[in-house]
Amino acid sequence: MAMSVGQEDGDDEVISAINTTPLVDVMLVLLIIFLITIPVVTHTVPVQLPKQTVQPLQTTPKSVEIAINRDGNFFWNESLVDAPTLLERLKTASQQTPQPEVHVRGDQGTRYEFIGRVLTSCERAGIAKVSFITEPPARGG
C-alpha cells in the first residue's frame, strides 16, 4: 500500500481562484455605514416650503480706489489729489454707513514711504478695511 505525500512529477498548479474575503469585509463595512447614515439623512418632516426670493437687507458699499504712481502722486478714483485732500475724503468716507473698503493700488516702483502715507491717512480717518490690489504673475514666462 503506497502512500503519496506531496506532489509527484513536479505538477505545480497555479491557483486561479480569487480570494474574496477582503472584498466581502469591505462591502460589509460599507453596508453597515449606509444602514446607519441613511435614516439620519432622510428623517425629516415633509413640509411644503414657501417660494420666496431673498432681498439683501444691507447694500454693499462702494469701494474707494486709491492709486499711487511711481512718483508718489495719489489718485482718488482716478482723479489726482494731494495728501490733505486725501485725508479729508477718507474721513468723509469713514462716516458712511456701511463704511466703504479702501483698495490701494501701488505701482511696483513706488517707494514704501508713499504707501505708508496712505495707510496712515486711512488709520487716522478710521477706515476699517484696507486692501492691496496686485496682479498675479505671468504664467509660462
TrEMBL record:
Which family is this sequence assigned to? Belongs to the ExbD/TolR family.
Keyword Ribonucleoprotein applies: no
- Membrane topology type, per the record? Single-pass membrane protein; Single-pass type II membrane protein
Q: Coiled-coil intervals in this record?
A: none
Query: Which protein, by its recorded name, is this?
Result: Outer membrane transport energization protein ExbD
Q: Which domain of life is it from?
A: Bacteria
Organism ancestry: Bacteria, Pseudomonadati, Pseudomonadota, Betaproteobacteria, Burkholderiales
Question: Where does this protein chiefly localize?
Answer: membrane
Give the Gene3D superfamilies listed for this entry.
3.30.420.270
Q: Which residues does UniProt assign to the signal peptide?
A: none
Q: Which residues cross the membrane?
A: 26-45
Tell me where it resides: Cell membrane
Pfam families, alphabetized? ExbD
Which key words are in the record? Answer: Cell membrane, Membrane, Protein transport, Transmembrane, Transmembrane helix, Transport
Species annotation: Paraburkholderia tropica
Q: Which InterPro entries match?
A: ExbD
